[in-house]
Amino acid sequence: MLIQLGEYYLDTDEMSLRVNEQSVVLEPKVFAVLMYFIEHHERYISMDELHENLWKDRCVSDAAVRRIISKIRIVLNDNHKDPKYLQSLSKRGYKLICPVSTIPSPIEEKQKSIEKTEHKNVKKAKVYFYLIAIAILFLSLAYLLFKYNVDEVSVTARVVNTVVSDKKAFAASSEGRYIAFTSKLSHEKNYHIYLKDQKTETIEVLVDNTTLPTGLVFSNDGERLYFSDNLGGIALLKQVDLTNKAHGIGTLVADFYFITDVFIDKNENDVIYFSGQKDQQSALLIYKFNSEKGLLEEITSVPQKGFHDSRADISPDSGKLVVLRIYLGSKRNSIRVHDLKTGRTLFHHDQNTTIYDVHWLDDEHIILLDDKKLAKINVKTGHSNIIIDKNKGLIALERVTPNTLLAIRDNDIINTLIEKKLPLSDFKNVEMIQKKQPEQDSSIIAYQPLGNKIWTVINEGGVSSLIFYEKSKVTKKATLMSTENPLELLGASLSGQYVLLKLQDRITILNTFDNSLTYLSKADELIGDVTLSLNEKSILYTRKSNGEWQVFEYVIEEKTKNLIFKGYRFIRQFEGGYVLGDNTGRLSRFDANEETMTPMPVSISTETNTNWAVINGKVLWSNHNLINTTFYEIDLNDVDTSNLKSKTFDFSVIRPSFYVDKVNGLIIVESLGSRTSEIISIDIQ
Per-residue pLDDT tens for 273-298? Predict the structure, then answer.
C-alpha cells in the first residue's frame, strides 16, 4: 500500500519513503512511529500514548522517543520551527499536519475489479493470495539470508614501508602508485611531507618544514599535491609542483583561521575542495576553490553555532557530497549525503561515537571510520557491513580502488600523568604516574587527587572502574563502581562522600556512603559546565535551554534545584562570590555581598578538551591551537592583565585538559609519549 504524505510516498510493504524518484528505507521503529501518526493524523499524539502503544513491554526514555521523532523530521526534510509535516505543541504532543491519503496499488485495484465481477472465484482468489503470501515469505527469508550472510566481508591488511614517525594525514595518487604523507619525529616540532613511489620503493622529501598539515590530495593529473598548513591562527592552502625536482611551493588560499580536510572531484580539474574556518568564532564549512579563476565558493552551511563540517568527499560520479558534521559540546557526530545539483539531503546517519573519517567507496557506498569500527554503508538502503571490528589505532582513511583502502594506524604509546606545582611561576613537576603498563590491558582514564586521597577511572578490557585509595595506602584500593558505559570523572568532595561523574552522557552524583546515584541531567541536554560548590553541599552547573545558557544550583541533601544566573555558560565559586563566563568564554566576577558584576579582562577557552579553575585567589585556565598548549593564570582582582602569567608547551607533548588538587596546590596534566604511526593497505573481498 502507498500512503501519500504531502510530496512524499510511504510504501508500507517496503517500509520506504520516496520522493522525486529517491527512496529511503526506514528503520523499523521510525516506520512504526510514523505509521502511528498516520493512523491518528486527525489528532495530537502525546508522549505517554506513544510509550503505551509502541513500547508496551520496554522502559524507554522520552529522549529516545524524541530521537525517533527527530529521524522522522529528517527523512521528511521538515523544520521543527516552521513545520510542514509534523507539528509539536507543548503539553499536547505531535500531529501530522500535511495531507494524508491512501493510494491503492495496481494489485489492489485489480483485486477490487475481480471481487466485483467474479464473486464465484473468491475461494480461488484466497488460494492465490495465500500462495503469494507464502512466496513473499520465502523471498523475504531469502533476502535476509542474502543481506546478512552473503554480504560478509573478507579483509587482508599489510604494512606499507615508510618513515618511522608520527603521521597525521596522507593521500594516494589516482592510480595508486604514489603516496604522500606527513611525518614528524619525536624530537622535532614541525612536520615534513614525504612522497613515496610504490613502484620503485623510493621516498623523497617534498616539503621540508610545515607546522600542522591536516589535509593532502593529489591533482587528477598527478602533477600537483595540494595541502593545508595551519600556523596557529593563520591557515594556508598550498600546492607543490611534482613535475620537476625543485618541487616549487605556491599558496592558493590564505584568508582562513583553520583548514582541515582537502579533497577534489575526480572529474573536475583545477578545483580544490576543503573544510575551512574563516575565524575562531565561525563554523568549519566546505569550500570550493577554482585555482584557474581564483574563485572561492561556500558549499555547505550550518543551522547554528557549534556545528562544524569537518570532513567531506565527492562521489565518483560527481553527483553527491558526503559530509561529516561534528557538534561541539556533544559526542554526537552525523553523516549527510547531499545531491550536489539540487542540494537535497539523500541520506542521514547520526551516532554518539567519534567519527574519524568518511569517504566514497563507489557511487552507492561510503566507508566510515569511527573509534570502534570500519564500516561500509549503502546510502540508498542504509544497510551497513562491518569491514574491521574493534578498531585498534586507525585514525585516517584513503580510497585507492573500491577494493583497496589505505589507512594510518597509530601504534600504542605510553603516556604519563604529571603533577605540576602552582602557581605558574613555580610550575615544576612533583610526581609522575604512568597511564598504562605495557604488559597490562588497562589504562588510567582519569586521575583526581585531593590531598592524600585519590579517585581514578581505570579502563580494562572495555570496562571502566571508579577506584578510590589513599596515597599512603596505595595497595588498599576500593572499587566504587564498574560499567561498560562511557564514564567520566568530573570531581570529588574532600570528605569523599560525593563523586561527580558523567555517566552515559548524564551528569551524575555518586554518594559513596550509600552507593546511590542521582542524575542531574538527561542524555540529550546540553550541559556547559559543572563543579562542586565550596562547601561541597551543592552542585553548580549550566544548561542551555531555549537558546539561553542558565546557571543552576542543585542542593544535594534537599534534592532541590534553583536558577541563580542567566546568560552564562561557565561558573566557578570563590570565597565571596562567583566567576562566570559567557558563551564566548568572556569572564566576569560576581560579588555576592554587594551583588555587583564586574567584567574581567580575559576569556577562557570554550573547547571541550580544556579546563579552568579558581584556586588560591587566581583564575587558571588552558588553551590550545593544535600546535601549542598554553596555561594562563591571573589574579581575581586584576583589571588590566598586569598580573597575567602564562606557560606554553608543545601540544603534541602536553595536552590542555587537567585536574586540580586544591589541597596541595597542584594541577595534573597528561604528557604524551613518543608516537609512531604506520600506513597500512587494506584489501576488501
Answer: 999 999 988 999 999 999 999 999 99
187 located within any domain: yes
Return the axis-axis angle of helices 28-39 and 47-54, rounded to nearest 10°.
120
How many distinct structural domains can be found in the chain? 3
Q: Do residues 547 and 530 lie in contact, with contact meaning Cβ atoms separated by under 8 Å?
A: no
Residues 630-647: pLDDT tens digits?
A: 999 999 999 899 999 999
Q: Angle formed by the axes of helices 106-117 and 122-145, to 10°? A: 160
**Angstrom distance (rounded) from CA 537 to CA 176:** 62
Please check whether residues 613 and 653 belong to one and the same domain. yes
Q: Which three cell numbers stand for residue 344?
A: 537535497
Separation CA 234–CA 527 (nearest Å): 31
* 43 and 97 inside one domain: yes
In whole angstroms, what is the distance from residue 184 CA to residue 502 CA?
35
For residues 67 and 47, is the Cβ–Cβ distance under 8 A? no
What is the DSSP annotation of 367-408?
EEEESSEEEEEETTT--EEEEEES--SEEEEEEEETTEEEEE
Cα gap 589→196, rounded to integer Å:
56
CB-side exposure of 128: number of CA atoms within 13 Å?
A: 8
Of 103, 138, 166, the domain-final residue: 103
In this structure, are strands 498-503 and 506-511 parallel, antiparallel, or unpaired?
Answer: antiparallel
H-type helices in 55-121, by residue range?
62-75, 106-117
Shared domain check, 164 and 282: yes
Which residues are bridge partners to 413 per DSSP? Answer: none
- Could you write out the DSSP letters of every residue in 590-614? EETTTTEEEEEEEE----TT--EEE
CA 611, CA 621: separation in Å to the nearest integer?
Answer: 6
Range of the domain at 460: 416-671
Predicted model pTM: 0.63
- C-alpha span between 237 and 260 (Å, rounded): 10
Closest CA to 507 of 462, 479, 539, 538: 539
Chain length of the chain: 685
